[in-house]
Design goal:
Layout (H helix, E strand, L loop, with lengths): L11 E6 L3 H10 L5 E4 L16 E2 L8 H12 L5 H20 L26 E2 L5 H14 L4 E4 L4 E9 L2 E11 L4 E12 L20 H9 L3 E2 L4 E8 L11 H5 L3 E3 L19 H15 L4 E4 L5 H7 L1 H9 L9 E10 L2 E3 L11 E3 L4 E2 L12 H19 L12 E2 L6 H21 L6 H23 L5 H22 L25 E3 L4 E2 L2
Parallel strand pairs: 1-2, 1-8, 2-5, 8-15, 14-16
Antiparallel strand pairs: 3-4, 6-7, 7-8, 8-17, 9-14, 9-18, 10-13, 11-12, 12-13, 18-19
Helix pairs in contact: 1-4, 1-10, 2-3, 3-10, 5-13, 11-12, 11-13, 12-13
Length: 539
């Protein structure tokens, strides 16, 4: 039996798609003066935020400076960071950290002073990582959801899957007037009008076979924004976290950047350290460099993983600093105080996304984006560790401020009739989306991974074109179920990654091509921008 939908308001001032940190922060600030409805396709606490371990980067130490945080971010971003966006991120982040603490987030503190226990991570020149042991995302999510539930003019709709955005032409240009969500009781698509819509759907890691992302990370917001005609930027830059726990037959879990920040050493299976051969910063080099180094060592030796060794650190410190990772490792038979951790790179974060400005505004009026689904220009070609939650905080708040000042006075869009679905799920038709999803994830892992080539990308391009036709057929023939809508978004996102990667004829940051081994420094770095209607690169 399909799960019945909760009560849905007939309209909202602002609709939010996603219940991670970007969506929640937006709702908290926007609800001070507006009615907000949050749509989330699973439980409200199920988001990429909930799985974030490391922490939030912010200048809170008097020996640190905003200029140095900007510098570290731009070095990691390899020439593609937007200076204005980075300066906003770094300047507006610390007050928001203090606001989180006031809302009940229990950050780790130094026992002697009571101040924040600031951690160190790769690419940072100072200790500036605010954390809640190694469960920062979960602590932030729980505290903010508790605060959000106290807001009377916020409605949170669980298990309510948003399928598409509604965009119409007006005398002033294109405008987003609401969203379409799936009602399994119909089955049908129902329209929810809103003066503004925020896309805060998180990442796209599920398009890859190995990922640190949860099952919900299927790139839905990017897919629906692309179909609506919004501009997407820098989709080729997919970050592979260097250290996911290696398990041959299971789902990998993240082993935080902070483990290397606290002295973890990467070694081959015979116990030899290797990072110094790839970068003078060793294990504290940025993620793109570390991931490629691990990939190279694995291929050179024919190994399935490498080792992350913490056994030289104090056992009590490790259990206290990394309680979640210690427990997870123990459940897989590894005592990290006595044995190295088997690790392998896994798809982790998209530095590209829906193009937006410093207020979260896209090129469609009334459509906003924040968090991992957005491209703000902060991360450039490679994200600095622990800048992601910070970006979601800053742009979630800024988008709320923009909506309150610019969209609250807009006339409420008119309601639209529901769209019936001729739903079928039986037999061979139902199993096809399962097989196609598995094929897609393997294709992206094998051909569009850490190291790429034009030949591999063109093969993926051809196969994805066939998959696009197949998923279109499934939907047109009545397979209008959530899994098929997700698959449509995954195929769209995969094609955007491949097309953008083919368009970039250099190696830069997270995009490493065997056909263009060097970074092109003969001209200023260029962002890759693309939109539909017709499909075209626009920058």
């Amino acid at each position: 039996m399909p799960r019945p939908l909760p009560w849905v308001p007939e309209d909202s001032d602002f609709a939010v798609i996603g219940s991670g940190i970007a969506g929640i922060i937006f709702a908290l600030f926007a609800s001070e003066r507006a009615r907000v409805t949050v749509f989330t396709k699973k439980e409200q606490s199920e988001s990429n935020t909930n799985y974030a371990q490391g922490g939030i980067a912010a200048v809170l130490d008097p020996t640190d400076s905003e200029a140095e945080h900007v510098r570290d971010t731009e070095i990691a971003g390899v020439g593609l960071c937007r200076r204005e966006a980075v300066e906003i991120l770094v300047h507006e982040g610390p007050p928001l950290i203090r606001q989180l603490a006031q809302w009940g987030v229990q950050f780790s503190r130094r026992p002697e002073s009571g101040g924040f226990d600031l951690g160190m991570e790769g690419g940072h020149s100072h200790r500036r990582i605010v954390h809640a042991h190694d469960m920062t995302g979960r602590q932030v999510e729980e505290a903010l959801l508790a605060e959000l539930r106290r807001r009377r003019n916020v409605t949170i709709l669980e298990h309510c899957y948003v399928v598409d955005l509604e965009v119409g032409e007006t005398p002033d240009g294109r405008q987003c007037t609401g969203l379409w969500y799936y009602d399994p009781g119909g089955p049908c698509l129902r329209f929810h009008p809103a003066r503004a819509v925020l896309v805060a759907t998180g990442g796209l890691g599920q398009v890859y076979l190995h990922t640190t992302n949860p099952a919900i990370a299927t790139g839905d917001g990017i897919g629906m924004a692309y179909r609506a005609g919004a501009t997407l930027a820098n989709m080729e830059f997919v970050q592979f976290h260097p250290t996911a726990f290696y398990t041959p037959n299971g789902t990998p879990f993240l082993v935080s950047e902070a483990v290397r920040g606290e002295g973890g050493i990467l070694k081959t299976l015979d116990g030899a350290p290797f990072m110094e051969h790839y970068d003078p910063r060793g294990c504290l080099a940025p993620r793109d460099i570390v991931a490629r180094a691990i990939d190279a060592e694995m291929k050179k030796r024919g190994d399935q993983h490498v080792l992350l060794d913490l056994t030289h650190r104090d056992a009590d410190f490790l259990r206290r600093r990394f309680p979640f990772i210690s427990t997870q490792c123990a459940e897989h038979g590894v005592d990290l105080t006595r044995s190295p951790i088997p690790v392998v790179p896994a798809a982790h974060y998209s530095c590209g996304g829906i193009e937006c400005d410093t207020w979260g505004r896209t090129d469609i009026a009334g459509l906003y984006a924040a968090g991992e689904a957005a491209h703000t220009g902060v991360h450039g070609a490679n994200r600095l560790a622990s800048n992601s939650l910070l970006e979601a905080l800053v742009w979630g708040k800024r988008a709320a401020e923009s909506c309150l000042s610019e969209r609250l006075g807009v006339q409420m869009p008119r309601a639209l009739a529901f769209r019936p679905l001729n739903q079928r799920r039986e037999g061979m038709e139902a199993i096809r989306w399962v097989h196609m999803t598995g094929e897609l994830r393997r294709l992206m892992w094998d051909y569009v991974g850490i190291v790429r080539s034009s030949e591999r990308l063109r093969f993926a391009q051809r196969r994805l074109a066939v998959m696009q036709a197949e998923v279109d057929y499934l939907i047109e023939s009545g397979m209008g179920i959530v899994e098929t809508f997700e698959l449509r978004n995954m195929v769209a996102v995969a094609r955007l990654i491949v097309e953008s990667a083919l368009h970039r004829r250099e190696s830069r940051g997270l995009h490493y091509s065997l056909d263009y081994l060097r970074q092109d420094d003969t001209q200023p770095p260029v962002e890759t921008k693309v939109r539909i209607n017709p499909f075209a690169f626009v920058g």
